Amino acid sequence: MIPAQFDYLRPATLEEACQALAADDEAKVLAGGQSLLPLLRLRLAYPTTLVDIGRLPGLTGVHDRGDHVFIGALATHDEVLRSPVVRAGCPLVALAAATVADPAVRHRGTFGGSLAHADPAGDLPAVVLALDGVLVARSAEGEREIAAADFFADYLETTLEAGEILVGVKIPKLAGEWGFHYEKFRRTVQAWAIVGVAVAVRRSNGSIQEARIGLSNMGTTPLRARAAESALQGVELGEAVRQACEEASADTAPPADLHAQPDYRRHLARVLTHRAVRTAAGTP
Amino acid sequence: MTEVGTARRRKEDARLLTGRTQWTDNMQLPGMAYVAFLRSPMAHARITRVDVSAARGLPGVIAAYAGADFAEEQGSLPCAWPVSEDIVIPDHPPMAVSEVRYVGEAVACVVATDRYKAADALDAIEVDYEPLPPVLDMNDALTEGSPKVHEAGNQAFTWRLTQGDVDAALRDAPVLIDRTYIQQRLIPTAMEPRAVMATSDGESFTLWSATQIPHVLRLMLALTTGIPEHKLRVIAPDVGGGFGSKLQVTAEEVLCLLLTRKTGRPVKWTESRSEGNLTVHHGRDQIQHVTLAAEADGRIRGLRVELLADMGAYLMLVTPGVPILGAFMFNGIYKMDAYDFNCTGVFTTKMPTDAYRGAGRPEATYAIERVMDELAAELNLDPIEVRRRNWIRHEEFPYTTVAGLTYDSGNYEAATDKALSLFGYDKLRAEQGDRRDRGDPVQLGIGVSTYTEMCGLAPSRVLGSLSYGAGGWEHGSVRMLPTGKVEVVTGSSPHGQGHETAWSQIVADALGVPFDDVSVIHGDTAISHKGMDTYGSRSLVVGGVAVLAACEKVKEKARKIAAHVLECAPDDVEFSEGTFRVRGTDSGKTIQELSLATFAAHDLPDGVEARLDADATVDPDNFSFPHGTHLCAVEVDTETGMTKIRSYVAVDDVGKVVNPLIVEGQVHGGIAQGVGQALYEEAVYDAEGNLLTSTMADYLVPSAADLPAFVTDRTETPATSNPLGVKGVGEAGTIASTPAVVNAIVDALRPRGVHDVQMPCTPERIWRALS
Ligand SMILES: Cc1cc2nc3c(=O)[nH]c(=O)nc-3n(C[C@H](O)[C@H](O)[C@H](O)COP(=O)(O)OP(=O)(O)OC[C@H]3O[C@@H](n4cnc5c(N)ncnc54)[C@H](O)[C@@H]3O)c2cc1C
């Protein structure tokens, strides 16, 4: 990798890291480097300073906090997908993390980095959005909580302010009988999602009581398929589910790129949502 | 036990896999400087100004140059295959001086103390371009009013091969299949990117390059730069794959030589993957218009091929020859009396194309194998049955084809029967019918590919008749060391194939020495003075045979010495398993004892030199013709368009096998690469001529995780044209697999009215074909 020149800082504490960021608008946080380094390599980003938070204490690990799971910003994808706490408290996160890239990337890339990077094609933003996660950020001024619905601002843009570092994410545990599935559509195993659908459904007595649906790569940010969610409410398993999932592409603005045109992505969103809901509801 | 035929693990693998070896990029020379190239962002433009002065002043920068600085010395990159009388070979300066013709063409460079400073300094170079219209579509390029890539126009050449009366065959044919297939442009993706290092003492030059062709490269660089051949040494150290992309004389190789001369320092350049996607020569890129005429029973009357071949912006080493190699293969394994092949080479403002695994044969095989399936569908026959009715039967060999080649041996029946039984053909057909009947959203398709190819490039006389600039021989040397160990110097240049192992096996058998007592040296023109290098599945068939021939000469010498020592006539000496014995007695000498005796030279027969070594240069009599039957089953999800390869059976006949493990590896990698073309890979340029697939996120290459477990097996019909009976296996998998996969996809969708899907068969393309 031959990036442009930059300074490198490895602060010992979170406070120092926040100060370093506050002091320089062009400084950038470096976590696992799996999204930032490719940008540097291609010389698409020219930060003055990289503030390496990779060894900061307190940002790592996955913690069971009773009504929610707290995933440290520095927890790697691999750690997350293997974590018994995640598997028990928010299995959808583990299902999605397992589809990220390849083992090498999953051992370096971090949960916080995936969200802060805010790539709508990433797998985790849609999941955190679907599960109504709450992102915890820290700056020199203190700590702040941001609901996932307010976090993803635009393509690769979040509402994190300059000088703020994401320290972790609270994922509320869902009460009741929930089923989960992450349906990722990609051309090769290691490729990014053309479309990804994250689904959590609560079912009882042969019908769906509640559904939460997050869409990857269907707009400039991760999206909730709200129309499909409402259409699914109270629907009996069977043909009616397919009908309801036809709403999955409503209010989306999917990109056009080498791998797919928008109309095809909309079609996929509908088909994949149906499949994901059926799998999550335990009906093959 | 014979070594040949044994599945030896490759002796070179430990060092290649652990990296305890010299890759060009690892090497360091004292005082080394690093080169970075500024590349054109325009597909076509006049260069009106290049100002490198600001870059020259930056810290760490040793030198910066524009094309004009090389104008006197850089020559023109060579094209060694002027295929026709009408060919236009445009001047191809290694660094553009006045006009750029593709995105990525080098326009300036920086030499700096490290590679970061070199890359940074590129930003300080100013270039003014006056845009010229890009030329991107081959059909448009050939129209009257098209903008021109070169002054002489956009037609590079025309070339024709014709046999029999095709017009008559097509006229009133009971069945006529008329199709156009697009061979998309591919980017060869060797694991090791290109890397070049050059140094000079002021008079002599040494160039290290991740190349397939050190010998050809030395000759061509000498001719291009004017550096005398004996003052230029070229070294290909261990090289991490090539697939044809390193069968080239590149701009960067020429410029690194010139830069070491200009700066007086050793220089190195290593490409990034994105730089490589832009500027490694591309492969394929043809439009094939194929018309096949057949009788009502499916027997072929004749075949016409109209081919447009995209040359890109310039003709590189064998650019125009690639479609010509294909010309001999469109008829495949089938008998027909009339064939007409017309090719037009077209210039466009894109990276030049050149050899890529199979070079012309995959394209041709794809077309004929696709069309055979269409013929079967038209006649409502099983695709295997249509092939049976047309292929050369085993008792008909040797057989001279309509394209003029003489296939020496083959047994298509045996390979096909074996493949069918391994595949469970009938059972899969039954399941296919069942899924069709049920209207299953996941449909099953079965693809057949009964391929052959021409390997073992090549008889020098044939190359001469095709206007190729060089011969097709290969050279080998074998020398016995005093301790009885053996050094082999080969003129072919491995870059992952396993020559060291295979050659050791051949030598071990020929001389009766242990496998581990043989070492194989290659790739350095100062040590291996003579060679034609590695491409076209030629190494074993020509280079391995040359080593065997050298062994035979060593044995003859040893026999004379043995006779002298054993006090008998040479004719009374028999050789077996490393020992020369007086016929019918126990009295003998091992080849190791004779090696030492020859070294000591105390008692050699009169007139015999004190050396137990020999050279051989072998020119093949004919090409070799591996063949096989590949069967592929795919599941196509008709709701999403996604294809999944469910099973894949390859039965290849590569003649005698020296090392089954190496053959297996070549087949696996080859199939993967062919599947890559069928399903995943495509170099895409936008309407301005920018390459959109410059990273591996955009240019998708399959990995093991995307592929099923291949079932591989072989039949063994020895080649009759060489003493080893070998045919070559480097390209077979790639040639066979692409049509097998696409035939399977079309087979799955045919009831839905789909007769073709353009490659790569992406889910979106399949979905649109179904919509
Ligand atoms: C080959 C490859 C394939 C990939 N495929 C996928 C895929 O299929 N699906 C997928 O979801 N992802 C994929 N990724 C991306 C991967 O998930 C990254 O790990 C992730 O996007 C970023 O995490 P990181 O820790 O590496 O962040 P970095 O690269 O270090 O940082 C990314 C961005 O986030 C900022 N940042 C990081 N951490 C914080 C923090 N705690 N607070 C504030 N800002 C922060 C950085 O400043 C930077 O702007 C792939 C990456 C690669 C290299």
Automatic annotation (TrEMBL), chain A:
Looking at the UniProt entry, the stretches that span the membrane are none
UniProt-listed Enzyme Commission number(s): 1.2.7.4
Top-rank taxon: Bacteria
EC class name: oxidoreductase
User: InterPro entries, per this entry?
Assistant: CO_DH_flav_C, CO_DH_flav_C_dom_sf, Diverse_Substr_Oxidored, FAD-bd_PCMH, FAD-bd_PCMH-like_sf, FAD-bd_PCMH_sub1, FAD-bd_PCMH_sub2, Mopterin_DH_FAD-bd
Swiss-Prot/TrEMBL keywords: FAD, Flavoprotein, Oxidoreductase
Gene Ontology terms, MF aspect:
anaerobic carbon-monoxide dehydrogenase activity; FAD binding
Q: Where is the FAD-binding PCMH-type domain?
A: 1-176
Q: What is this protein called?
A: Carbon-monoxide dehydrogenase medium subunit
Organism for this UniProt entry: Nonomuraea endophytica
From TrEMBL, chain B:
What GO molecular function terms would the record report?
Answer: anaerobic carbon-monoxide dehydrogenase activity; iron ion binding
Give the source's domain of life in one word: Bacteria
* Its EC number(s): 1.2.7.4
Q: Which Pfam families match?
A: Ald_Xan_dh_C, MoCoBD_1, MoCoBD_2
List the SMART domains: Ald_Xan_dh_C
Alphabetized, the UniProt keywords read: Molybdenum, Oxidoreductase
InterPro entries, alphabetically? Ald_Oxase/Xan_DH_a/b (IPR000674), Ald_Oxase/Xan_DH_a/b_sf (IPR036856), Ald_Oxase/xanthine_DH-like (IPR016208), AldOxase/xan_DH_MoCoBD1 (IPR008274), AldOxase/xan_DH_MoCoBD2 (IPR046867), AldOxase/xan_DH_Mopterin-bd_sf (IPR037165)
The Aldehyde oxidase/xanthine dehydrogenase a/b hammerhead domain sits at 18-133
> Protein name, please?
Carbon-monoxide dehydrogenase large subunit
Native species of this protein? Nonomuraea endophytica
